[in-house]
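C-alpha cells please, single chain.
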Amino acid sequence: MITKRELILGGAALAALPIAARNAWAAFPDRTITLVVPFAPGGSTDLAGRLMADRIGPLLGEGGRAVVDNRPGAGSALGADIVKRARPDGYTLLVGSASTLAVAPASGAAAARYHPTRDFTPIGLFGLSTMGLVVGMNSGVNTTAELVAKLRAEPGRWSFASSGVGGISHLAGEYFAKLAEAEAIHVPYRGGSQGPEAVMKGECLYTVDSLGSIVGQIRDGALRLLAVSTRARDPNFPDVPTIAQAALPAYEMASWTVLVGPAGLPPEVTEALGVAAARALNEPALRARLESTGTLPESESSPAATRAFLDREFALYQGIVQRIGLRLD
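Here you go.
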C-alpha cells in the first residue's frame, strides 16, 4: 500500500497544482480524452474505467469529456502498447491492471516488452481488488479443500479458465495449482465474462478472477465462491474464507487498477490528471460502486505514490512468476 511519506510527497505536489497547471496548460483539455481499457467490456477494469471516464473530464474543467476505448488482446498487452506509443499529451491514457502492468511484463511475454514506470507515466491508483476462487454450481465441488482433492486425484484432467495468457487470472490459477501440488490445464479466454462463463458451463473446473468481474454471477447463484485470494476476508462476503484459511496457507494475491499515460507526459498535465482522478475517487457515489464490486478505493492517490506502488508490485509479481516458473515465450 501507499506509505505516509509517499502521500506527503504526493500531497505537496497536488497542493501546488491548480495555479501551476492552469498557467502552463490553460487549454487542457481542449478535446476528448480517451481511456484505453485493455479488456473486453464487462470486467472489473472496464467498470473502473467507465466510472473514471464519467467523472475525470468534468473534474478537469468545464466541458471536459473522457470516453472508454476497449482494446483487448495479447493478455491486455495490446492496449498497453497502444498507449505506450501514443503522443504524450494527456489525451490517450491507460486503465491498467495487475495483468497489464505487472504479470505480463514479469512473465516475459513478447507483446509486453515494457516496464510499468519507465515506459509509462503513473497518474493515480484506483484501488486494490479482491479475487475470488469460483467453480460452477454443478461441479460437485463445495469447498477449496474438495477442489484441491479433485485436482490431485485426477492430474491433468481438469482445467482452469483465465481472461488471457499472461493476465492476473492466469497467474492466480497457476499459482493455486502450484501450491496445491496438483496439475491443471490452462484455458485462456478473451477477457470480459468469457472465462467465468466457461466455468458456469462446465467447460473449465475453476477460475480465480476479480470479484468485480464475477460478483453478479456469484449473487445470482451461477458460480460458487469457495474462497477469496487476499490475506483478509472480503467485507462483501464476510462468511467466505480466504484461500490461505481454507487450504493453502501461503496463498495471497490481489488485483488492482491504475491510471497511467505514455512516458514523458508534461508534469503539469500529469498533476492535473492526478488531481482529477483523486477527486473522483473521493466521491461517495463512485467509491460505493467500486466497493460493491470488491475494490477498495484508494482515497489519497497521487502520481508519485502511484509510481512507488507500481515499482513495488512489479517486483512482487516478478518473484511469484519465478517461484512457479511461468514463462510465456
